[in-house]
Amino acid sequence: MMPTCPLCASADTAFYHRDAWRDYHRCERCTLVFVPPTFRLAPEEERAVYDQHRNSPDDPGYRRFLARLFEPLHARLEQGARGLDFGAGPGPTLSVMFEEAGHPMAIYDPFYAPDPSVLEHTYDFITATEVAEHLFSPGKELARLVGRLRPGGWLGLMTKRVTDHAAFTRWHYILDPTHVSFFSESTFRWLANEHDMSVEFPAGDVVLLQRRWRSASVKASDGF
């Protein structure tokens, strides 16, 4: 029996690839490539991998890396727009970059900043850098983030994209045991259509989704 897609919940999935230690399946509906639940790490194993990350706002190289998302998103924001950095990790940096540019920021991370109250507010923009590929339940998590955006708000994601099957089988990105969800352009186009959003691809690993203004209205006072 094929596993259900964790993004769109379709049962129309098919085997896609097998390497030395796990399987990958592809959804025929939204084209997400994903690792079935049986191959996922336990929370303590996942945390141990993340604890090895040494990211910091004092690292110019890391700032240059994040600038691939920061620059195109910042160019689309109004002055003083409020944001949330989701999955900020052990060394929050993108939030610092936006704060330096005049944007009040909240952060959330299930391991390092697990404050659920920030997920009760709404925001002008939400970022998630190198997060989408780690999500066990991307459909649920991304829908939650979209629901926290005000009309006209932006969701900015950084994650490397699937191009074709041959490249996938040689891809270093799948060697990280915490990477379990792999998106392509068509996956993001499906996501945009599902949530009534526009979508742009400013770089090979960057996607910007904007909630349309005609979406359900949100009280302007619902901030943080």
TrEMBL record:
The keyword Methyltransferase applies. One of its GO terms (biological process) is methylation. InterPro entries: SAM-dependent_MTases_sf. It comes from the Bacteria. One of its GO terms (molecular function) is methyltransferase activity. Transmembrane segments: none annotated. The keyword Protein biosynthesis does not apply. Keywords: Methyltransferase, Transferase. This is Methyltransferase domain-containing protein.
